[in-house]
Structure formats: structure tokens, C-alpha cells
Amino acid sequence: MKSRDQIRTFIAAAAVFCFTLANAAGLNDHEQRMVDWIDANYESAIDLLEETVNIGSGTMNPQGVRDVGKVMARELDELGLETEWIEMPADMGRAGHLFARKLNNKGPNILLIGHLDTVFEADDGFQSYTRKGDVAHGPGVEDMKSGNVVIVYALKALKEIGVLKDMSIVVAYTGDEENAGSPLSVSRRDLIEAGKWADISLGFESGVSYDGQDWATIARRSSSNWYLEVSGKQAHSSKIFNQEVGHGAIFEAARILHEFDNKVRGEEYLTFNAGTIQGGTDVNYEFEQTRGTTFGKTNIVPRKVVVHGDIRTISNEQLERTRKAMREIVADHLPGTDATIKFEDRYPSMAPTDGNKRLQAVLSGVNEDLGRGPMPTLDPLKRGAADVSFVAPYSDSLAGMGAVGDGGHTPDESLDLTTMPSAIQRAAILIYRLANEEKP
Questions:
Q1: For a Cys-Cys bond, which of 76, 168, 195, 413 suits 407, CB 3.0-4.6 Å?
Q2: φ, ψ at 110 (rounded to 5°)
Q3: Res 91 pLDDT > 60
Q4: What is the value of pTM for the model shown?
């Protein structure tokens, strides 16, 4: 006779089984075949991940970026897509982009977005893939070589059931997402054109899951730069604040930054950061490299300050409102000082549109049918900017379609390998369901 604890254990196990079966009931035969194929082949996906992570591909390492591109082109060629390497102008210092296409007139046009580069340049000490159990470490393992692999293996699963040949798919792997080349009109031209072609765009940077809950990304904030230059009258420090000399550049910079914090901060989804500041008698600052040199003395009223920062917003309207407020503060000078502020557009915002919310509903349904529960909306404050934002104005979009990791942009970057199969399954089924919708 079984003990009471054994009976309870049996009942709990039966409940879990029934729950899983009920949730899996939403998968049709094609979808279940893809799930089974992915479960049987995900270790080969891990092998591809290891191969690409072991190729150093910092943004400013063009050869490394090209070498990763060759590996991904090999995989996409085998799937029957037509691959193209798009070179950037030599003076841009960027490798270029890999695009792959399978174009048909059936179903919606679907754009899948990844990137080949990482933040780890050739002289960085963090260069190789390691694995311990179900956790992998390495440069770009989370951001975003795992997402690149998810794209490939989702397409492999679709090919396995014989439906890929009838889809309209473009895969865009940019080579400079971590530090986009200037001008953006050139470095993002091909991606934007693909976004205009697409009805649906899916970004495959890392997914978000915590406390057993998967989250859907329907919005990402913009990322743009600002550059403040302040001038004052150089003089002996004993004369500061008098009518002839005034307050000096550093006090004026401090006033401006304080008023930014006091008067501009506070809107939902708005953040702005002063990333570097240099001030003194002489300042030399390299804008592109975000570094410089400063000379000054405590008994000299400083004549120059340079501050370099960023702004992140949820919409273009919020960005312009913020810039206007910052300009007004800068224009109200302390005696004996002057200041100018310049803004540089970088990554636009991805607003939470109705179309994105519709895609979220489809994605959430897929996740439930996989037995993982619904996917609520992720707070945009929890994500940075990404390439998907360049296409979001033209097509319904989702981001964060990749596997789940941690420590991105640091030597502790890692990936939970157990999340790779579910990310591939979720992507394959989502693409399958979207491709079978009527074209808008």
C-alpha cells in the first residue's frame, strides 16, 4: 500500500502532466513536428553558437565580423536563401552587413534581424567560448550570437516540415550594431529598405525571462547623443564672480547639469546621462573615441568644459520635447560664460504600436501552447536600443526573440543554454503562424 506522501507525489505529477498536455493541445501537427525536431537537434545549434563565439568580431575588427558573416552565410545558403555581403565605404571603418533573401508572393513579408559584431575588440582579453553544464560564457554569447543561431535553426525547422520554400523571408545581420557607422543614412540604408519591404519585423537580441515568466518586447527606447561645450573667461581665481570675469566655465556647466536634473528629468521612459566631463584651462576631446585630455590649475578660472552624454526616449515627440527643454536651459548663461549644445541622432525609438501589440498576442499564444504561459509586455526601461528600431516605423515589430542570458557587454557575459530550444521553437512557430495569415 502506498504511503500518503507517495500518493500526493503521484497526484502532483499527474497534474503537471495534464497541464502540459492541455497546453500542448494548441499545437498542430506541423508545429509539433518542429518542436520535436528542435528538441532532437538543439545541440547542433549549440555547436554553431560555439563556432561563432570563438571568432572575435568586435565592431572595429572588420575581418572578424566578415568571418562570422561567412559562417552564417554558409548556414543560410544551405537553407536555400540567396545571401549577399553588403560592403560599407572604406572610410567608415565598418565591415558591412550580411543579408539573405527568400522572396515569394505568398503570405506576409517577414524580416528577421540579428547582428554579427560584439563590443569586445581584438585586444580584449575576453575572446573564447567556454561551457560549464548548461551555462556558456563568451564574447557575444548573449548579445547576440545566440540570437543569430536562433534565426538559423528556426528556419531549419520550417524547412524540415516543407514550408520555408513558400515564405517571403529576409534575414538581416548587421555588422556594426554595437557602434553604428556614420552617417546612419549609409550604414542603415539597407536595413531601413528591408523594413519598408516588410510587413513584420522580428529582432532576435536576447529574450527576457525571470521568476518563471517570459516577457514580450513590443517597445524599445531611442538612444541619441548630446554634446555640451561651455566657455568662460580665463583669469586669476581671485577675480572669479566679479563683473569683469564672471563665474567661469565649470560653474556654468554645473548650473546646466543641475537644471537638467531638476527641470528636465521626470517624464516616464525618459532618461539622460552625462557620460564624460572635462574642464579646465585647456580641453582636447575626441568625440568619436569619447576620451580626451585636460589641463588646468586651482588658481585659474577655467575657460572650457566639455560634457558628452546620451538621451533615451520612448518616442520622437518625447525626444524633441526633451531637446527643446535642454536648449532653453543652456541658453540662460551665468555672467561671463557662454554655452552651446549639439545633438546627434543615433538609434530611434520603437514605439508600442497597436500592430506590435497584435504580434505580442500571437507570440503569447505560441508560448502558452508550448506550456510556458502567457507573455506580458516588458517595461521599455529594461531594454536598450537596437537595430529593430530602425524598421519599427514601417512594419509591425517585436524584439527580444532570442535565448536568455546575463552580463551582456561585460567579461561575465553568459547564456542559459536550456533556453535555446524554447527560443527556437517559439520563433519557428510564430513565423509559421504569421506566414499563414493573409497578407495585409
A1: 413
A2: -120, 125
A3: yes
A4: 0.86
Per-residue confidence at 107, pLDDT binned at 50, 70, 90? confident
- Tell me the residue type at 39: D
User: In order of start, what are the domains of the chain with their CATH numbers?
Assistant: 8-220+350-435 (3.40.630.10), 223-347 (3.30.70.360)
Q: With contact defined as beta carbons under 8 Å apart, do 136 and 143 qualify?
A: no
Residue spans of alpha helices (H) in 109-262: 146-160, 184-187, 189-197, 248-259
- Whether the pLDDT of residue 6 is over 50: the answer is no
Q: Say which DSSP state 248 is in.
A: H
**Cell 550580411 identifies what position?**
98
Confidence of residue 438 (pLDDT cuts 50, 70, 90): low
> Which alpha helices (H) appear in 234-381, and where do they start and end?
248-259, 316-330, 354-369
What string of DSSP letters covers 27-62?
Answer: --HHHHHHHHHHHHHHHHHHHHHHHHHTS--BTT-H
Q: What order do you get walking across the sheet with 130-132 strand by strand?
A: 130-132, 135-137, 414-416, 405-406
Give the strand pairing for 223-232 and 337-347: antiparallel
Residues 6 or more apart whose Cβ sits within 8 Å of residue 90:
none
The DSSP secondary structure of 209-242, one letter per residue, reads: EETTEEEBB--B--EEEEEEEEEE--EEGGGTTS
What is the residue-averaged pLDDT of the chain? 93
Whether the Cβ atoms of residue 360 and residue 409 lie closer than 8 Å to each other: no
**Which 3 state secondary structure label does DSSP give 371?**
coil
In sequence order, which residues have a C-beta less than 8 Å from that of residue 366 and are 6 or more positions away? 426, 429, 430, 433
Query: pLDDT category, 8, cuts 50, 70, 90?
Result: very low
Rounded Cα distance between 422 and 70, Å, is 26
